[in-house]
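User: My advisor, Dr. K., asked me to get a structural model of this assembly before our group meeting. I'm new to this, so sorry if the format is off. These are the inputs:
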Amino acid sequence: MTDMLEPRAMGRDRVRHDARAKVTGAALYAGDHAVERPVHLHVLQASIGRGRVTSIDASEASALDGVLTVLTHENAPQLSNADDAELFILQSPAVAFRGQIIGAVLAETPEVARQAAGSVRVAYDVEAHDVDLRADRDDLYAPEEVNAGYATDTDDGDVDAAYDAAPRRVDQSYRTPLEVNNPMEPHATTATWSEDGLTLHDSTQGVHSVRATIAPLFGLDEDQVRVVAPHVGGGFGSKGTAHAHIALAAMAAKVSDGRPVKLAVTRQQMFSLVGHRTATIQRVRLAADEAGHLTAVAHEVVEHTSRIKEYAEQTTVPTRSIYATPNRRTSHRLAPLDVPVPSWMRAPGECPGNFGPEVAIDELAEVCGLDPIELRVRNETDVDAATGLPFSSRTLVECFDIGALRFGWSDRPTVPGSRVVDGWRVGLGVATSTYPVHTMPGSVAKVRSEGEGHYAVHIGAVDIGTGTWTALAQIAADALDVAVECIDLEIGDTSLPYATVAGGSSGIRSWGSAIVEAARRLRSEHGDHPPEGANGESEAADNPDTEQYAMRAFGAQFAEVQVHCDTGEIRVPRMLGVFAVGRIVNPRTARSQLVGGMTMGLSMALHEQAFLDRATGHIVNHDLAEYHIAAHADVADIEAIWVDEEDPHLNPMGTKGIGEIGIVGAAAAIANAAHAATGTRVRELPLTADRYLP
Amino acid sequence: MHADIEIEVDGEVRSTTVDTRTTLLDALRDRLGVTAPKKGCDHGQCGACTVLLHGRRVLSCLTLAVAHDGAVVTTAAGVAVGDALHPVQEAFVDHDGFQCGFCTPGQICSAIAMLEEAAAGHPSHVTDDLVAPVTLDDDEIRERMSGNLCRCGAYVNILAAVRSAAGT
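Assistant: The format is fine. Below is the predicted structure of the whole assembly, which you can bring to the meeting.
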C-alpha cells in the first residue's frame, strides 16, 4: 500500500500552463532557439536498398559558394561506441537500408545546403535487398525477448487439444501495416560544441536518455552533454529514443569550429530515419464452450525487424492478460529485413496486438450468437494470467456498462448489414482497451523553498503535448499543500535532476512520485514551513505493491460506422471511450489526451499505411500527401469519459497513465462496427473503401 | 541570386536579403527570427506554416519570399492586441484546442481567415447553396479547417474553439 496524496489541485480542471505561449507561437521548439552564425545541415541518404558506397563525388557540391563541408564515411569523425548500429553512421561504406544516412552537407544557408546535397554524386555496389514480410519465410527467428523486456513466447495448458475439442472456434489471420509516427514537429537538433562539451537543443521525449545515448558515442562523460527541450511538438514514440540524426548533428558540430549546427529532418526523411511501427501478421485462434467461455487462445505473430538492429514489437503481450482462459499460447517471430530501423509508436505491441484478437472476439461472439459485450464479460478475470497476480484494480465491466448505456448499444441492429439510412449502411462495434502500468524507476525531483509559501520544483521531465507542465505543478501543489500558483516548475533540461523518458504512459507516474517524495523529504527535514533555500531531493519511494499486484489500465471503446452502399466510403460519425485509468490529475488535459489517442486510432483504422516497395526498398508514400493521417473532416464526434477508480496500490497520486490507452482498441471497434454495418469482415488495416464495395 | 526585400511582419517593417529560392516561411524563421509559423512538411501538406498575407491565409512554405516585397504578413504572434489574446486564441485556450502546440499557430491563423471567408460568403466543398450566406455548422468548420493537420488529435476541441469564436 502506498501513502496516498490527498487530492486538492489534482482532479480539477486547469488550463495548460503553456497555453498562452502555444496560441501566440511564443513556445520555443527545438528548431526555434536563436543561435549565432548557425551552420545548416542537409542529410544525404542512400538511394539503394542494400550494398556499399563505392565513391562519393562531392566536387561540384564543394565548389558551391557557401558550402563548408561535405561529410561522408571518408572524412567523418570517428565514433567511440559501435553498440548501436542505427547510430553508428558514417563509419563505413555499408548501406543497410534505403534512406540510411550516408553523408551530410554543411553550408551557410539551408538553400545552399540543399542544392549542394542534390549535386553530390554517389556510386554504389548494389546488393539484392529484401523488404518482403511474409509469414511463410524460412528465415523467421525468435528474439531473446521482445520490447519492454517481455518473454518472446508463452505456452500454458494444452492449446491444441482444447482447440480441437471446442464447439465454438475462430481461426483467422489479421494484418496491420507499417505505420509512421509523424509528430507534427519534424525531428530537429541544434548542436554546439564548446570547451565544456556538447549542447543539444533537441526535439525529444527524454533529455536524459538522449544524453545517455549520445555521450558514449563521442567518448564524453554524461555531464559533458547538455540536452534542452522545453517544448516538444509531439513524439508518439519516435522521439523516445535517440535516432541517427542526433549523432549526425553532433558529428557535424564537432567539425564546425564551435559554430552551432542546425539540423531539421525533413518530413520525407522521417519515414526512414526516426523509427516506425512494424507491420504485423497475426494468426489468432479462439476456442470457446457453448456459453462463450474461452477454452483456448493462441496469438502467433510474424513481424519485421531491421537487419542491423533488432526491435521486436511486443504484439501478443496484451493477449496474455486480457481475458481468462486455461490454455493460452503466444509467440513472436521476426523477419530480418533490409528496412529502416523500427521503434516505438504509440502503445507499441499493445496497439497492433489488440487489433487481431479484438476483431477475433467479435467473430467469436457471432459464432456463439452472443452480444460481443456479454462475451467479454463472461471472460472477465481478476487475475493477470501473465504474472499470476491479482489486478490492483480492473473496472472493465463497468466501462462497458456505462458506455453501452450512453452509446445506445441496446438499440443497435444485431443482424449485420440490416440498417440502411440515406444510402449508408450503419453499424456499431466495440472493443476492449488495455495498457500496462509500466514502472520506470530512477527519476529524481528537487524541491526548494523560495519563501512565503512558494516552491521551486525541478525535474528533467518533458512535455510533448501531454500536459506535463500543468499536471506536475498540480501534483507538486498537493504534495506541498499550497496553491498551484505557488509552484515554480522547471522541466526539459539535463541540468535538472534525472528523469525517465516520456514514454510507456509512465511520465506523470514516475516524475510525480519523485516530486511527492521530494516534498515529503523537505517537510520531514524542515517542517511544515521550511525556511527559504531549504531543499528536498528524492527518487520515488519504493512501492512493495508492485510485487503483489498486476497493474493495468482498461477501457471500453465504442464506434458507429457508416459505409456507403454504392461507393464503400467509410465514415465514423461517433466514437466513445470509457476508461478505468486510476485517478485523473487534470480532467481537461486528460480528456484531450484520451480523445487524441482515439483520434489516432481512427486514423489507424481508416488511413494509415506506409508502402514498402519491393523493387526499391523504399517507403514510396513518404509524405503527408500520400501517407494519410486523419484530417479535421475525417473526425466527427469523439468523446472520452472515465470511471472513478481509486487504486491505492499504484503510487501516491493513484494514476495509471493515459498517454496510450486511447489508441488501443479504437481500430478494432471501428472494424467491428464496419462489419456490423455491412456484414463484410475486413481483417487487414486500413479499412479502405475498396474492401466494402458491393 | 539574392534580393533585398521589405516585409511588414506583425506590425513591424523588416528588411532582409534573401536567396531568391527562399520561401516566405524560411525568410520569416531563418532570416527574421519570427518562429511562430512552423515547418511541419515544407510542401503545403500540413498547414503548420499558415500565416496571414494581407489578411488572407497562405501556406508560407509554398510561396517565395522574393515575391512578397512590400507585403503585410501577420503570424499567430501578431494577432493579439497588447496583452489581450485574439478571440480565436482565447477560444483555443478555453477549449484546449491543442496539445503539443506545434500546429497551433497555423490553426489560429487559418481559423481567423476562415471566419472572414465564411462571413464574405465564400462556399466550401460541403456548402450546398453556393449563393446563400454561409452557415458555419460543424461540417463547414471541419471542412474549412482541414488544411491544418493535428497529429495529437485535437480536432474535436479545435472544432469547439472555432464554433465558439464564430459565435454559432
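One thing worth pointing out at the meeting: The two ends of chain B are 49 Å apart (CA to CA).

User: Perfect, thanks a lot.
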